[in-house]
Every structure is written in C-alpha cells, then in structure tokens.
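Take a look at this chain, tokens included, and explain the fold to me:
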Amino acid sequence: MEKFTAKILSYILHPLLLPTYTIIFIFLLPTYLQVFPFVFKRAMVVIFFILTFIAPALALLVLYNIGAIKNLNMNSANERKLPLAITSAFYVSTYIIFQLFPYKMPDPIVSLILVSAIAVTAAFFINLGYKISAHTIGTGSIVGYLLVFFYNSNTGSSIVLIILITILGLSAFARLKENSHNPFQIYTGFLVGFIVGFSSFFM
C-alpha cells in the first residue's frame, strides 16, 4: 500500500507539474496580480502547462518509444541525461518567449519560469556526475520561490508554510519509498532547489 501511495504522490508532485501548480496558486492569492483579467491568467496557466509539462512529457514519451530510455522512471543517472537536457531546453525557451512578449510580463511570473529553468538546468549538470532527486530540486525551488514571493507581496501565513513543508515531506517520502534515491540525494536535491528558488529575491 505504501509503495502504491508513493507512486501516486510521485506522479502528482512530478517536477514538470510544479510550475503550473505554482502559477495557479499565486494567482489565487490576494496580491496585485488579482488586477489582471481572468483571460490573461488563464492564458498564462495554459502557456505554462503546455511548455513546462505537455511538451517535455511528450518528448519523454518519444525517447521511450525509440528506446533512448528504458522506462519513464529513469532510475539511472545516465538515462536522465538526455531527458533533463531536453526539459532544460524547453524551460529556457519558455523564459526567452516570455522575455520577447510585446509587453512587460509581471515580475513574479518571469521569476517563476526563470527559477524553474535554472533548477532543471542545475539538475542536468549535477546529474552528469551524480544522481540527484529532481523531485526535491523541484519542490525545494518552489518553496524558496514562494517564500520570496510571500515576502515581496506581504502575503502568506504559517498555515501556508506548513502546507509547503508537508508537500516537500510527501515528495521526499515518495522518492524514498520507491527506492529512487537515497536520503543524501533527497536532501541535496532540496538544498540545491531551495537555493535556486530563494535566489529569486535578487532577480
């Protein structure tokens, strides 16, 4: 039962879904982003979902179908190299697209995709010599990003912080139960991700 629960959590908290979850979340908070019309918010969510989840996920399926990776779990560091490189390319491209928009995008949105792009790219380079948890890099980067967002927008609460820590814990639990990583890889992933996310304070 625990193995099944861990697998479900790994899918729900997949790193590719975290940017979409996060942009929906910050749009729901009582900040200046609420002044933007619903059409704009919906467009941003759709763009994030397509470019940071659908496109990389389809690329992974193609790699699996042509035999470039043995399974979608990509348990070995070697199998993760090409998928992480492709995902990094998609995320960096998304950031560039946002920069090329004819009007200035809200800073929190630009920072979110930049943090996500840096986190994935960091995962790629670290993975070249050492297997690390992409799940906890993802959750760590989002936790760091949201702490900065809360500070800059004077929002957030202890309840939200507890929820974030719980999500991080669930992600770590899932990866450990699936034997995808050892504790050190989990903790290192969170630390790297958190540093990347918290660096959004300077972006």
Notes: The helical segments are 2-12, 18-28, 38-65, 77-99, 107-127, 134-153, 158-177, 183-198. The chain has a mean pLDDT of 87.
